[in-house]
Amino acid sequence: MIPGFWSRRRFSDLNEKEILALAISAEEDDARIYASYAQMLRGEYPASAQIFDDMAAEENEHRRRLIDLFEARFGGVIPLIRREHVAGFYARRPVWLVENLGIERIREEAARMESDAHDFYIRAAQNSGDPATRKLLGDLALAESGHRDHAHALEKAHISEDIKEVEAAESHRQFVLTWVQPGLAGLMDGSVSTLAPIFATAFATQDTWTTFLVGLAASLGAGISMGFTEAASDDGVISGRGSPIKRGFASGIMTTIGGLGHALPYLITDFWTATIIAFAVVFVELWAIAWIQNKYMETPFLRAAMQVVVGGLLVLGVGVLIGAG
């Protein structure tokens, strides 16, 4: 059983007083969400932060108008009723789930917030048989639609095409610094550093299971080491590279993946079949690294290929020679 599920009220069971109280709390929550987005964006995206400041002010103004209407109709005591108290009422994602996903994702979430509220009130009004309730829900739907249109107007007023380009470039830069760069470093380390021990073991023992265990241990060990090293080496405050936890996860996971790529074929019991497949996987891994360097780090493809492929093949050769000798 979901805790509290059976204690929730159905929206259709709410009276006008409760619906108005629910609208007041919803407006208050949305204003706080927009203010949180503005505070988070102010340092790197001041123009977008101004939009969310204005949207928060709009939500607060609507809340004040709703409170005035409530007091005029029902008195000064507003019942405590929130989204989570009503079954089927639209939910809001926690701010911390959205704020780490970039400026465009935050804008999309804001548009979804207004759209959800508008659509919910429209559907609720259509399902209501009470004329007064239908009117109230229709007015709320129009208000939410007005919020959405106003948000678009604010964006046009505060964000020019030049500012959009600057913000998009900053967002891309942050994505590269936080995710791509540590992930690429991890993939390179995992793919290249594990070549020698895996293939040395393979050719020395010609035992696929032993080779797989060595590859698994090397990949996991390297992943843990790279993850902790990345997270501990730079807190991101001065360098602007973003959360050390994100970078640690990106580096550690990609390091492990890079090593496991050519370890997994040794789950095949036939030595030469496993080894040929592992060679093919290594080739794909090295070219993938060169492609990522070219796409995200703007390294010329031929130079990236020479650095990664040649270096990787050298390490592979060392492992084969040691194992075969």
The CATH superfamily of the largest domain turns out to be Ferritin, core subunit, four-helix bundle
Low-confidence stretches: 1-5
**Which sequence of strands runs across the widest sheet?**
1-2
Largest sheet: 2 strands, parallel
Q: Look at the structure and give the CATH class of the largest domain.
A: Mainly Alpha
Distance between the termini: 64 Å
Q: Which outline best applies?
A: elongated
| Mean pLDDT metric | 80
**Count of alpha and pi helical runs:** 11
The CATH topology name of the largest domain reads Ferritin
Q: What percent of the residues sit in helical stretches (DSSP H or I)? A: over 70%
**Total DSSP E strands:** 2
User: How many structural domains are formed by the residues?
Assistant: 2
Q: Percent of residues in beta strands? A: under 5%
In the CATH hierarchy, the architecture of the largest domain is Up-down Bundle
**H/E element order:** EHHEHHHHHHHHH
Q: Structural class of the helix and strand makeup?
A: mainly alpha
Kindly provide the radius of gyration, computed on alpha-carbon positions and rounded to a whole number of angstroms. Answer: 28 Å
Topology:
Elements: E1 9-10, H1 16-41, H2 46-74, E2 86-87, H3 95-98, H4 103-126, H5 131-158, H6 161-193, H7 195-205, H8 208-233, H9 244-261, H10 271-296, H11 301-324
Parallel strand pairs: 1-2
What does this structure look like?
- This protein has 325 residues and is mostly helical.
- 77% of the residues lie in helices and 1% in strands.
- The protein has 11 helices and 2 strands.
- The chain has helices spanning 16-41, 46-74, 95-98, 103-126, 131-158, 161-193, 195-205, 208-233, 244-261, 271-296, 301-324; strands spanning 9-10, 86-87.
- A two-stranded parallel ribbon has the order 1-2.
- The protein starts with 8 loop residues before the first strand and ends with a helix.
- Residues 1-5 have low confidence and may be disordered.
